[in-house]
Structure formats: C-alpha cells, structure tokens
Design a protein that fits this description.
Blueprint lengths: L1 H10 L24 H4 L16 E5 L3 H18 L3 E5 L2 H11 L4 E6 L4 H9 L3 E6 L7 E6 H6 L9 H4 L10 E4 L6 H12 L6 E4 L4 H13 L5 E5 L3 H6 L1 E4 L6 H7 L17 E6 H6 L1 H9 L4 H10 L7 H11 L1 H4 L10
Parallel strand pairs: 1-2, 6-7, 6-8
Antiparallel strand pairs: 3-10, 4-10, 5-8, 5-9
Helix pairs in contact: 1-9, 3-15, 4-5
Protein name: ABC-type glycine betaine transport system substrate-binding domain-containing protein
Pfam family, one: OpuAC
Keywords: Signal
C-alpha cells in the first residue's frame, strides 16, 4: 500500500503551489458577468449558428485537474449546445494575458488568479475577459484530515473541538499525539503551528514537519497501512484523499483578521479560523457572453465538487487510464453532477 500511495501522490501532484499566508481575495479584482440574456437580440430573423459560428477554445493547462476539466467541458459543450470546441495549450500567466488582449482562448476552466494577480487585473481592465464563476463547489482548498475509519469510531471527530477528547487515540502510547503538518519552508507550516495553539492543542499534540512532500506522504501512508489514527494537513483536489478515504476536520468559520495573524511567525495571540478561501475561477472571454450566452450560462453553473475531482484524479492512477478516457467516463456516468451545469434536472 505504501508504494501505491507514494506513487499516486507523486504522479498526480497538483502542479499549483500551496496557498501562501495571505488573503487571496485581497489581491485580485472580480467583475460581475454581464446579463447573458440581455446580450441576445430578439430581432434576429433566423436562428443563429451555435456559439455564433465560432469555435470555443479551451485552455488545457499542464496539471491533471485542469486537463480533466478542459476535456469534460469540451465534450459537454459539443453534445449539449452543438458548438465546436477544441483544446489549446494553457499556462496561468500566458493564458490570462492572451484572454485580456484578444479574447483567446475563450475559456480557462481552472485559473488560479492569485498566482498571477497583476496579469489578471490587467486583463480585466481590457474588458475582454470576465470571471464566469468558481471552478470548484468549495472555496477552501487546504485543511486538516483524519481517516474515515476514525470517523466511523468517533463521528464527532469531524469537529476540531473533539480532538481534545480523543487525542489519546492519536498518541499511539506516547505522552502526546502527533499532528503531521507540511514542510517547514511551506507557508502552511506557520499557519498549522498557530492553529494548534489557537485551538488549545499545544499540550496534546506534537507538530511533526516533514522535510519534503515525499516524507509527508510517507508518514501518512505508513499510518494508513497500519490502520492507525492520524491527524494531518493536506489539500484538495488530490487523488490521495479519494484513494484511501479521509474526512476533513471542521476548523470553524473563516476569520479574516485571525487568519492574517495565523500566517505570521510572531502571532502573539492566535485565534481559530479555517484556512483562507482561494479564488480559483473559470475565466471566460467577453465575446462568449455576447455570441454564445447559453455557453456563458453553462460556465456560470459549472462548479466541480472536490469529491468528484478527487475521484477523477484517483481514476487516472488506474492501468491504461488517460485524461481523455477518464473524462469520457465522467460524462457517461456522472450526469447527476453535470446535468445541472447544462441546465437540465438531474436524471434527464
């Protein structure tokens, strides 16, 4: 199991860096999309060509989750709106810049705008591109997790307050339990240390900071292979969380002021908070709202749940799996998810 876990984690590592201890939403600008209905003319004498006769170009970024989204959206747009859709190579900075200059590509399904805030804000000013909506159904990508088998034994372990009652389960006979954090040079290491203090767990949990990502995954894999209780930090979307079954720990509501302190080494009085939301968006060219309003409305509804993407990434680890055939399988089997995006009730 350990070899499988580590191979999976290394092979399907989301190629976007871990969130830094800044408030992501403070660094970017968002504009509401125009009214898609107002963009269509009622005076047309004949039905327009699908998507205004234009091809919907979709940025296919370098990391697996974005590649899956591009392939899934292309299939659904072709099948449900009769549009021509094709993939083009994508890159965070280059794609955002190009969309701001000439509205191409038409869609970037997974744009991490806090990684390229100046480019994104400049693109918005051109009025050639808009934020259609959030890529994922959940806004917070980082958190603490426990194995599903621990939640079966103690259902209230999904709340951070319960860790005080069950810490001995995580101690494995030692005087203190272990919390597996992230490498010390990652921003999340500072946040996790302060969260332990903020939640009154300092005397109950030792914070273990692995040297690197490989060691982090190894520590988790060793515990899971022995069915041991484990509390650890991780992020989504990620195949690991679907492969072995982990439940998030509710850290409470997000507190902007508290989180700003949690991100500082010298946080004198840390207060509880969840991790900061991160705006990961579907970027859409302005012309799509005008010439293909039904497609614009589709992307405003197309929010992928983490659990679905985690499972898709896990499926990529299967023998002979490709981005394309995993996308095909999602479209064939998960209509209950995507039918809401195309505006159909689930089951139709």
């Amino acid at each position: 199991m350990l070899r499988v876990f580590v191979a999976l984690a290394v092979g399907l590592l989301l190629a976007v860096p871990v969130v830094p201890p800044v408030l992501a939403q403070d660094s970017v600008t968002s504009l509401p999309p125009p009214d898609a209905a107002a963009a269509s003319s009622s005076e047309e004498l004949a039905p327009p060509a699908p998507c205004g006769g234009q091809t919907i170009t979709i940025a296919r970024m370098q990391w697996p989750s974005a590649q899956l989204l591009a392939e899934i959206h292309a299939r659904l747009i072709r099948a449900n709106f009769g549009c021509a859709a094709e993939m083009v190579p994508g890159d965070l900075g280059a794609t955002a810049s190009s969309m701001g200059v000439n509205g191409q590509p038409a869609v970037a399904p997974e744009l991490w705008i806090t990684r390229v805030p100046e480019i994104w804000n400049g693109a918005l000013k051109s009025q050639e591109v808009r934020q259609a909506g959030s890529t994922y159904a959940e806004p917070v990508f980082e958190g603490w997790f426990v194995p599903d088998y621990e939640v079966v034994a103690h259902p209230d372990l999904t709340k951070v307050e319960a860790l005080k009652a069950y810490w001995r389960d995580f101690a494995a006979g030692g005087k203190k339990a272990r919390f597996i954090s992230c490498p010390p040079d990652w921003a999340c290491a500072v946040i996790n240390r302060n969260l332990i203090r903020a939640n009154g767990l300092t005397d109950l949990f030792d914070v273990v900071e692995p040297a690197n990502r490989f060691e982090l995954d190894t520590l988790i894999a060793e515990a899971v292979s022995r069915k041991e209780p484990i509390l650890f930090y991780y992020w989504q979307p990620n195949a690991v969380l679907a492969q072995f079954g982990f439940a998030p720990v509710d850290l409470g509501p997000f507190d902007k002021e508290a989180f700003a302190c949690l991100g500082r080494v010298a946080c004198a009085d840390p207060k509880p908070s969840s991790f900061s939301p991160d705006p990961v968006i579907v970027a859409l060219a302005q012309w799509v709202y005008l010439e293909a309003p039904e497609v614009a409305a589709y992307f405003q509804r197309a929010h992928m749940p983490f659990a679905e993407m985690n499972a898709l990434l896990q499926n990529l680890n299967e023998p002979n799996a490709t981005i394309e055939n995993v996308a095909d399988a999602f479209v064939a089997a998960r209509g209950e998810v995507w039918q809401q995006w195309v505006g159909k009730p689930a089951g139709q």
